[in-house]
Write a structure and sequence with these properties.
It contains 2 helices and 3 strands; from the N terminus they run αβββα. The protein has helices spanning 2-6, 58-65; strands spanning 13-22, 25-36, 43-49. It has a 3-stranded antiparallel β-sheet, covered by helices on one side.
């Protein structure tokens, strides 16, 4: 199952990651993921945003990119 989440089938899936650069490090603050089944009739999406970034429209930005 972990391999399925880590490897993307670029014909059916896309994942967008929002990063915040702080000093010498980067941290992930949000993830948007879109999956469409091969017949393109059904699909799903998921968005994860760190708690301290809620209310800053990051979810909307990740959805508009996907």
């Amino acid at each position: 199952m972990l391999v399925r989440f880590c490897n993307i089938d670029y014909d059916r899936e896309i994942a967008i990651i929002a990063e915040l650069k702080q000093a010498d490090a980067k941290r992930i603050i949000g993830i948007g993921r879109l999956i469409v089944e091969s017949d393109k009739s059904i699909g799903g999406y998921a968005v994860l945003v760190r708690d301290d970034f809620h209310g800053q429209r990051l979810r909307c930005r990740l959805l508009s990119i996907c």
